[in-house]
Design a protein that fits this description.
Layout: E1 3-4, H1 14-17, E2 40-44, H2 52-69, E3 72-78, E4 81-86, E5 92-99, H3 103-110, H4 116-119, E6 123-134, E7 137-146, E8 154-166, E9 170-177, E10 189-191, E11 193-203, E12 211-220, H5 227-236, H6 240-249
């Protein structure tokens, strides 16, 4: 087995870009959720009792903690995407890949709601329940419905997404499940949990017209699904990077 030690010098670190990081130098002040401005540009109805500023802080901290403390084992390289699995959590995956497109081109694609089913063919429905702005962060709550493989019941998720632009033209987005009693479970579905799904897009240091994408994904489908099916679905999740590459550049793999 090959063990990956994340090369933090090879990618712009959240220590530089994100003011909520635990591991920043001691001289930097740790901001709390109360330091963030009130939400503005509200569309939809907020989930009662949710502190969105606290959710933003929690989700970005969870991404950094998961990335930096997990022991990653190399699984395979497929379609120019390096795929790694956590030593302890069989469904916690990481993917790394380069795309011959600018960060803005990639962000425009992944932020386009009309392209959601293109990004993930298993997606049946994406209902945006709420969206707003909180200072430099864009936040939204979604109800997602997915087709499951074979005879397995379909899954749905209620998710909170927080995203921000990074200095230098990068982009960072973190998604986690959130409880929303007002969103009923559709008939024939099982409600799963996205423990964390994070994407960091940064310009390549040697060519700013190209971008590096790093993803971490940890999904609990809940209900009963054979273990081998869960692991097979999990290990292929980082191939979303190849799918993004295909629709942004026209090819799943980079030119040689």
């Amino acid at each position: 087995s090959v063990w990956l030690a994340v090369d933090r010098s090879a990618m712009p670190s959240i220590i530089i870009y994100h003011k909520f990081c635990n591991s920043r130098p001691a001289t930097a002040r740790m901001e709390t959720s109360t330091d963030l401005p009130e939400i503005t540009e509200v569309e939809g109805t907020p989930i009662p009792g949710v502190n969105f500023q606290e959710r933003i802080r929690m989700q970005f901290e969870a991404f950094e903690r998961t990335l930096s403390t997990t022991q990653w084992q190399a699984v395979k390289t497929e379609k120019d995407v390096q795929i790694f699995r956590s030593k302890k959590e069989a469904t916690l995956m990481q993917g790394q890949g380069r795309v011959h497109a600018t960060c803005q081109q990639i962000v425009d694609f992944i932020s386009d709601d009309s392209q959601q089913s293109t990004q993930d063919p298993m997606l049946l429905h994406n209902d945006t329940l709420f969206k707003a702005v909180c200072g430099p962060y864009k936040i939204s709550v979604h109800h997602l419905q997915y087709k499951s493989p074979g005879p397995v019941s379909n899954r749905d998720f209620v998710t909170f997404i927080a995203s921000m632009d990074l200095p230098g033209g990068g982009f960072h987005r973190v998604t986690m499940s959130i409880d929303d009693p007002s969103t009923p479970l559709p008939s024939g579905f099982v409600r799963g949990e996205i423990k964390i799904e994070g994407m960091r897009i940064t310009p390549c240091t040697d060519n700013p017209e190209h971008s590096d994408i790093l993803m971490i994904l940890h999904l609990d489908p809940k209900g009963w699904i054979p273990g081998f099916v869960v692991k097979k679905v999990a290990v292929d999740q980082p191939l979303k990077i190849a799918n993004i590459r295909k629709f942004v550049t026209g090819s799943e793999v980079n030119p040689q």
